[in-house]
Amino acid sequence: MNKLKLGMVGGGQGAFIGAVHRIAARIDGQFDLVAGALSSDPVRAATSAAEIGIAPDRSYANFEDMARAEAAHENGIDVVTIVTPNHMHADPAVAFLEAGIHVICDKPLAHTMQDAERIATAAANSGKQFILTHNYTGYPLIRQAREIIGRGDLGTIRVVNVEYTQDWLAEETPADNKQASWRTDPARSGAGGCVGDIGTHAFNLASYVTGLETDALSADLDAFVPGRRVDDNVHVMLRFRGGAKGMLWASQVAVGHENDLRLRVHGDKAGIEWAQENPNQMSFTKFGKPKQILTRAGAGSTPDGQRNIRVPPGHPEGYLEGFATIYSEAATLIRAADHRSVPDPSVHTPGIVEGIRGMQFITACVASSKNNAAWTKLG
Amino acid sequence: MNKLKLGMVGGGQGAFIGAVHRIAARIDGQFDLVAGALSSDPVRAATSAAEIGIAPDRSYANFEDMARAEAAHENGIDVVTIVTPNHMHADPAVAFLEAGIHVICDKPLAHTMQDAERIATAAANSGKQFILTHNYTGYPLIRQAREIIGRGDLGTIRVVNVEYTQDWLAEETPADNKQASWRTDPARSGAGGCVGDIGTHAFNLASYVTGLETDALSADLDAFVPGRRVDDNVHVMLRFRGGAKGMLWASQVAVGHENDLRLRVHGDKAGIEWAQENPNQMSFTKFGKPKQILTRAGAGSTPDGQRNIRVPPGHPEGYLEGFATIYSEAATLIRAADHRSVPDPSVHTPGIVEGIRGMQFITACVASSKNNAAWTKLG
Amino acid sequence: MNKLKLGMVGGGQGAFIGAVHRIAARIDGQFDLVAGALSSDPVRAATSAAEIGIAPDRSYANFEDMARAEAAHENGIDVVTIVTPNHMHADPAVAFLEAGIHVICDKPLAHTMQDAERIATAAANSGKQFILTHNYTGYPLIRQAREIIGRGDLGTIRVVNVEYTQDWLAEETPADNKQASWRTDPARSGAGGCVGDIGTHAFNLASYVTGLETDALSADLDAFVPGRRVDDNVHVMLRFRGGAKGMLWASQVAVGHENDLRLRVHGDKAGIEWAQENPNQMSFTKFGKPKQILTRAGAGSTPDGQRNIRVPPGHPEGYLEGFATIYSEAATLIRAADHRSVPDPSVHTPGIVEGIRGMQFITACVASSKNNAAWTKLG
Amino acid sequence: MNKLKLGMVGGGQGAFIGAVHRIAARIDGQFDLVAGALSSDPVRAATSAAEIGIAPDRSYANFEDMARAEAAHENGIDVVTIVTPNHMHADPAVAFLEAGIHVICDKPLAHTMQDAERIATAAANSGKQFILTHNYTGYPLIRQAREIIGRGDLGTIRVVNVEYTQDWLAEETPADNKQASWRTDPARSGAGGCVGDIGTHAFNLASYVTGLETDALSADLDAFVPGRRVDDNVHVMLRFRGGAKGMLWASQVAVGHENDLRLRVHGDKAGIEWAQENPNQMSFTKFGKPKQILTRAGAGSTPDGQRNIRVPPGHPEGYLEGFATIYSEAATLIRAADHRSVPDPSVHTPGIVEGIRGMQFITACVASSKNNAAWTKLG
Q: Would you call A319 and D317 a contact, using CB atoms and an 8 Å cutoff?
């Protein structure tokens, strides 16, 4: 099977998430990274391209040139991945979609709802694939959780509790911290800080696993660090359609937490608990029965829990493998689209719909918090 | 040192918490249980008294007789412990206080605020001790957490997250389950179900450890089990005086949780996490430093963490020992009161103030939830 | 039911284990401590007795006087508990047995095999009960483990792995540490140091739970701390009758371990794991099935796992409650003996047989280690 | 930087470890897999090659042809990786080394000591690199453990405890299980079964981290499953040069364990504990101080713990990333050798020395066990 030709926008020297995307694209061997507009700084763009093996004539000074040239190239890229800060998602996404090139894009979808809708429109018009890298949905046990809830193992869901806590922004942001500086600048991150950066992951994960639609939320956002211009701690109560209730806590000032995304779901028949920092196990308890520790692809695992794995149970897979699954499923979707075939029904990677939903979540949280945590509808 | 003479109201056959109180009173050897009105059913009262070694002439048919007789008895009880359902706390408490007898009482303080205030008034007028058995405050690491927060090890507190989750009421309550039936009957438990039974423990613990005063809360209460007349799941957002924020989750339908009281506190300097089911360890993380696992009375423990222990680190103490500490401190307070001496400043057992605060919490939660989770002031 | 009258030998001021025995005897309310020879120092004996409420005329200067006087007393003790260092077990045990008084004794049985056999003979001749406080056998989940192995849930046992690791003796023993000084003095602790103090607990626990008899062992004992006269680290390979194999590691120099007794048993059908520092849960895995986390008295618990409990699942019971179960079962045995009735078959408290077996274990370990870890038979 | 051209011997359809090596080689982007002799079955070899993108003219029917052709090819491979069963390591390794091609080889080094020595000789004569994929040495916290022990943070090492337990061979081996069948066939696996397959990993890890040399061992090997021709459970006592002691347990019949490699090291100053199934944390306890939970690249991490990482702390890296580090360091060693430069001193990947040491371990275990677990010298 020929590899897909991949381009990248953003991800030059000093960036974090670009390198992660490149590894994720390599792990399952389905992509060749052949083109890039890696930085808005032309020197850094060229140097970065050389470092990662992109030929000079496929390294571009900006995404507009890249979209135009790659669309015209006889061996042009099949798909581009966009790994820029939030405020620079929409313009390249629209440009590549309009150029007939599939798009993989980091989350959240955009920094404003208008931008998000521009992307959605372009995607709909293009007929091209748009994959949003909510990478935590790629963990096998998250797939298994989604599957067993879907088939009713938990019964009717009553309560969902999701958290994503970190502490790296617990103090004032050093001016030279590239990752921190754009995330705490509303002009680049959007109206939400923590809520957009990691709150959306938590919201997406809860929605993805349970299949529940959030009807309304009440949010209390804080910026605890003096001088911070965006929220760094987020408390949300959720009301789902159908009557389930939820709580969401996202924080970048929760001292003692590194990247502590965790999900608990309780139905009338059973409950589960999963935490990202040790993602190869999940607890599952049927009411009145002993708690079970389910392991990735281990005893009792389901078809979706056994798909997209690379090593047997007991050999931990991690963040990069979960991310790689998003890329592999993107490849499956892209190949199916290019061959006008029906994609594998087992593919469950988030896209435009989840991206818009995430933007609605951010928007509702910010609005609710400004309105004394009043209940606010999504969408 | 002579033992204190103890009486008990409630706690006859079939009761749960009465037996716990009796063991707690025995562990440190400071009490002799010599009198009781163990049941409103006279036969059960007598049989229960015989079983636990109370002399027939000190077993009473009702608390009124008991208060009167014991106050007049030359070797009458020093203190009574009240272990009846919530709606039967106030009458005996007032009767014994008015009879000049110290009172130990199970939580919550009462089933209505009026009753709570009657107790408060009686306690103030009597000059007698009133101890409320928020037993989880008796764990040595909770004492240590309180101490290190008080001395500033966590810096300014920003976020408090407290949970108390169970699953024993996840299905319809069997009619013959004595524990379940009064807890789900508003006439006996009060307006709050789960919020009063375990939500108050969570609220008390967060307040006790952090020293923060709750200014207002927003609560979403549910009764998920069909036909249930009181809440069985409680979501609360908290705003503390001074700017800290909190979340509280109490549930009796969270399948997979037995008695999962857990507390996380995050300040600008450090964070802690503790869980009741494994109460002999607590994590403590200074910002930028490795997480430490502090053990009960182990390395790095503080004076308050080393007080009230019975066995060295590594030998687990549990629920009953924490409860016994409440009793031992009650003994200390009672002896000091009786001798008009200053009680040991290390005693930190909850009493009337915490009881009223807990009632305000229940009241505010119920009111907020009826008002679409509107922010509601406490007290 | 009348309480049993209890006496104590040893356990005066400064002792550790005596206080533990006293609490254990109080928890279930079956004993009254009424007499003692608490110290070989008469002043300390009298002061200690006063402190714990023993009447002056029941406080004795030595155990010989006490045995004689209590046997003659019209309300003399029913049972004595011996909590002296190892070298002072045999003389009082024999004296009280010969005086017709039941004996509870701390472990190991004695400091030499001769002494152990003197006790065994006296016990056999007296017809009185002799209970050895291998307290870890009192944990409910240990009872449950014993029961499920006995009924075949693990199939044929293949491998047993038991450890008991501490670090409190990792450095040279301070001269003023009373607990440390006798444990590291061969004249008082016996030929084994760590192997006798905690190795016997580990050996007993493995034997108790599995029902396996050790045929031979190979032991490598070390005294790592300079100047130490007894072993402080013990490595043993075990061969059980019937073909199972085992490893045992006991250490008092394993830095990072407080009181880390843990047991793993693997059969051809299932495996279990339990650790004393969090004794309210045990893992249980059937081959090819998900691991289950069994909790004390929780879902899936067995009759023996539900016996001897005081609080519901999720409320941790600890070291003292396990110890209290030994005392309560001692009471059951003593009452049955005194009434010439058949004791409750659910009583499984260790006694003389296990004590002799423990001495054989110590003896074999010391002999094997001196002989370059040669395989050495027990008994 | 140009990628290294990689060939593979073994790893055709149905193989497990070959696919793992291919991912490991891809993750850091330093290798292109361009040639292979993937199977001794020519049809499977060709099909497998096509599947993984090896050109037909670089797919060989056997390793002899491959070594010859690739050595002569103008763009011939720089390095070959050997992923065949143990008995087929030596012949290809020698062939490629003699052809002047670097070798990466799965462990153990060979199935007999003679074969191992043939490889050692060929490696020495060739001047080429030979890397043995003891992949668990690639975990960042293992590197950190090695570094802190090397610099003295644990003081003098006293006790080492290492385990590698699995349960996948707890029952009779299905005839059609390719992975199981060669591992339980002495003709292909060598004299050791479990001891060679996973015991060597445990032994290597303990040696790697502590730097201690094993002087002698006493081993008790069992084949618990009826009809099994190699050991499936291994108990070993270890004596290290300098006086430290150790225990090693390897089992493939320990029901309840998936891939439970764990290491504990105790010195006179501190102790550590690490387990492979959650490899992103390690406990570290200084004597008398609280236990610390060190995380991969997190607070308190060391230079070696921060090297070879791909994502920040809190985002778990797993088995494949550890394996990838071995490949990346192999690349570093190969480039240095090819450029006659000094390799980066931070490279610590096992090679011939560790391979020979592992064979001595297997040999000594088998010999000791046959001799009633007599102490047996290594080497």
A: yes
Q: What is the pLDDT of residue B1?
A: 66
Asked: is B140-312+356-377 a CATH 3.30.360.10 domain? The reply is yes
Q: Which among D170, D237, D286 is the nearest to C287, CB-wise?
A: D170
Subunit contact A247:B245, Cβ cutoff 8 A: no
Chains that touch C (3 or more CB pairs under 8 A): A, B, D
Return the partners of chain D (3 or more C-beta pairs < 8 Å). A, B, C
**B297–chain D Cβ distance below 8 A for any pair:** no
The structure tokens listed for D22 are: 């291919």
A273: contact with C, CB 8 A cutoff: no
Residue A189 pLDDT greater than 80, yes or no = no
Taking the C-alpha atoms of residue A318 and residue A311, their distance in angstroms, rounded to an integer, is: 11
Q: Which CATH architecture has domain D139-311+356-377?
A: 2-Layer Sandwich (3.30)
Q: How large is the average pLDDT for residues C58-81?
A: 97
| Nearest partner of A265 among A238, A299, A300, A235, judged by Cα | A238
Phi-psi region of B155 (alpha: psi -120 to 50; beta: other; left: phi over 0): left
CATH 3.30.1360.40 fits C139-309+356-377, yes or no: no
Task: State the best of C30, C163, C168, C311 to mutate against chain B, taking most chain B CBs within 10 Å.
Answer: C311
B340: number of Cβ within 10 Å: 6
SS3 B330: helix
The CA-based angle B366-B367-B369, given to 5 degrees, is: 65
Q: Mutation test of the interface with chain D: which of A6, A21, A23, A274, choosing the one with the most D Cβ atoms within 10 A? A: A23
Determine which helix (DSSP H) or strand (DSSP E) holds C283, and give its type and residue range.
strand C281-286
Strand B157-165 with B260-267, pairing: antiparallel
A290–C291 C-beta distance less than 8 A: no
Q: Determine the residue type at C129.
A: Q
**CA Rg, chain C, in Å?**
20
Identify whether the C-beta of residue A263 lies closer than 8 Å to the C-beta of residue A274. yes
pLDDT of residue A302: 97
Q: Does C233 touch chain D (CB under 8 A)?
A: yes
Amino acid identity of residue A276, one-letter, is Q
Q: Where are the domains of chain C?
A: 4-128, 139-309+356-377
Of D166, D310, D314, the CB nearest to A259: D314
Structural contact between residues A199 and A250, judged by C-beta atoms closer than 8 angstroms: yes
Q: Is D235 on the interface with C (CB under 8 A)?
A: yes
Cβ of residue B271 closer than 8 Å to a chain A Cβ: yes
- pLDDT for residue A323 is more than 70: yes
Contact B287 A170 (CB under 8 A): yes
Q: Which fold has domain A139-304+356-377?
A: Dihydrodipicolinate Reductase; domain 2 (3.30.360)
Using a CB–CB cutoff of 8 Å, tell me whether B291 touches chain A. Answer: yes
User: Could you tell me the CA-to-CA distances from D114 to B139, B194, C315, D93, D365 in Å, in that order?
Assistant: 63, 72, 60, 13, 17
A343's CB contacts (< 8 A; 6+ apart) are: A332, A333, A336, A337
> Could you report the predicted ipTM of this complex, rounded to two decimals?
0.95
CA closest to D301 among chain B residues: B290
- For residue B121, pLDDT beyond 90: yes
Chain D residues within 8 A of C171 when measuring between CB atoms: 268, 287
According to DSSP, the residues that pair with A82 across neighbouring strands are: A9, A105
Average pLDDT in chain C: 95
Q: How many CB atoms lie within 10 A of CB B357?
A: 20
Distance of CA C88 to the CA centre of its chain: 16
Separation between Cα atoms, residue A328 and residue A24, nearest integer Å: 9
Residues of C in contact with B280 (CB under 8 A): 277-278, 318
Residue D101 CA to residue D131 CA, distance in Å, equals: 12
Q: Look up the CATH superfamily of C4-128.
A: NAD(P)-binding Rossmann-like Domain (3.40.50.720)
